[in-house]
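the two lines:
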Amino acid sequence: MNTLRRLFAPSLIAPLAALLLASAVASLTTPRFLDGQNLLNLSLQVSIVGLMAIGSTIVILTGGIDLSPGSMVALLTMLMALFITQNHLPLGEAIILTILIGSALGAVNGLLVGYGRIPSFIATLATLSVFKGWSFLYNNGAPIFSVSPDLEPLFYGSVFGIPLPIFYVLGCFALAYVFLNYTAPGRSIYAVGGNESAARFSGINVRRVRLLAFTLAGATAGIASVLMAARLNSGSPNYGQGMELQAIGAAVIGGASLAGGYGNVIATLIGALTIVVVQNGLNLNAVPTSWQLITLGVIIALAVSLDSWRRNIAELVVRFLRRSPSSPGEDT
Amino acid sequence: MNEVAPQPLWEVRSLSKSFPGVQALDDVSVKIYPGEIHALLGENGSGKSTFAKILAGVYQPDSGEIRFEGAPVRLVDPLTARRYGVSEIYQEFSLVRTLSVAENVFLGRLPRRGGRVDWPAMRRRAVELLDGLGIKVDPDAMVGSLSVAEQQLVEIAKALSIEAKLLILDEPTAALDVREVERLHDLIRRLVARGTAIVYISHRIREFLDLTDRVTVFKDGRLVGSGPSSEFDLGVVVRLMLGEELKEHFPKERHASDEPVLEVDGLVSDGGVKGATFTVHRGEIFGLGGMIGSGRTEIAHALFGVDRVSSGTIRLNGVSVRFQSPQEAIAGGFGMVMEDRKADSLFFNFTGIPNITVSRLAALLKGPFLSPGRERRLGREYLRQLRITPAAESKSVQFLSGGNQQKCVIARWVHSGSKFLILDEPTQGIDIGAKIEVYRLLNALTSQGVGILLISSDYPELLAMSDRVGIVWDGRIVAIEQANRLTDVSLFALASGAAA
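prediction for all of em together
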């Protein structure tokens, strides 16, 4: 009951409205949008960016930002392809290793930010470059194709007619939802983002919380990398390009505040869907990539400015409430 | 007020200014004469800084008149005030640490020649200015490398580089030691000899009663006394500042035992504690009295693991402890209500209950998961017991009154099971009814054997609620007295560095 109410909380209305608007525009401009095959396609498209957006949301909730997951995808798809083609690791081991390395890369970000006291924007901008450069070190910087015949079914397979990526996405989002709302570390992530100083003075180990958030972001980038490699049966230093922006955009369209402390993963999933619908609509209308990128940038900028307008409005409301005589029972 | 006096340099008539919820200034009239040192006195929030900021053009009065050399003027912004020769120095410096002294003095109006900065001219003028003021500071030195006192002098040189006719000093000595204060006062005397008027705001009353010509005392936004300094002594000023009206009601209960809960011996910290030795017993409220900047908060921060302890021992229930972080202190049974509620205590992104339970999330766990049911039950119980508004269950703490906010913070430490609680200015900015609620909470805590360290600049409160009071001066506890043997005047005298 409570959970149901939360699902229809006011915080979800704005992102849902954005999604409906995007879908309406897409279906009006091209009949192919509502085509069954296209909708299936959409669900596949949203899986990779959606998974990455879980990590971005967790980091944003702590008041940080992670610019590096796109580069992680480049590096991790390459490493995974190498594990299978050169080291001949079984598929399962290669997948687990890829996700673990993703977590380790995220932990490096977390150490730099939490313990090295480097602002997350700079720290992850630096590791973005490191991971990207690192991904070119293998196979003379060329992509590795035809990694394994068992890889593609992981992405294109289905159970009861439902594509597997939908299960991955729903599973991961459910886990993230439970983690953020029903565990102590999850609560601590909101606390650190809400007021770092108060968190410290309430006994929360702020540095460890930041380390955890970035490590989880690395893990979700790792899972996204596995799906990416499976989808294209290859690894490439060029994969993941610009995906960090889509992931951050999904969180922001979902209403996460870049100042930290406000946001939820369900809304992020809606945000990710919105971005994918917009891209898909533009694709179906044969809008060139240049204009797609410009549109995406404008939408994200709009979403962020809406966030700050909303906070200004909230501040006005506070001032108004302070000025007006408080209701009985409010003051003691 | 003043008789055959010359024309005042500045005169304000019936000045009023209110902020949401506060009447900061209420019908205040003051005259400031050239070449006089005019002391503004009053407790925190009495309106003296608001008054100074109106003269400096920072705030606009709601009503009243400001006259400069007899003619009405409007000080619409700081730049306008500056054009009338008003220069001000606040407690916080406005210096750029990575630039030289000379650059700082002329920042924003560096001497130029042919579109470039005229460095030799700037240096020459800086040397002239500093020499003229008798300030011995290297004009090429980086400001960040100077002592706080030297920075203060540079700040004054900067303020005076624009030919100030009126210099406003807001708590200029808070960070200075006795010798440095003397240097500053020498400089002020030289300025006055040149005809500059000085408005001087300070808490260190004793230090500067001799220095000033005229004293104006504020209380709760009203002017409660004004006249030549010779007519004022410490007792008179303190009476005026603290007021003699209705004693507030302090529901003090005594629960102090003789069993020590906290024993502190020779505490020295990196944060500026230079020597604190005291014991707090079970059920006792031990007050710390002292001026702002005397080291009260620093003692608390050393105990709570915020500042590093460099020597001395801290024993909680007989066991020696030394916390490296607040996290360790909290695990060890400490709690602290921070001075700045908004910055250091409250999570505006949470409603009231998560603000309380955050100090011990482990209590909410059912297996690995937080139990919303248990949190709600526990939280409602705290809201009921501490008489926090039921709205705290559904509203962000941002929208609660200061009193309800503070009670949520205190509930946080009840929830964590603190054996020793530090409260830094716990009733600041909350209304009288909520204050009494806070006092009742302190009673409830002490009745359960919790030891309390109470820091308060509200002396009547400190004396009424504490069992004993330690006087803090310059990072040390210099005296410990039974609270009921002190009066607010004698506490004030002790705290301002005078011998008992």
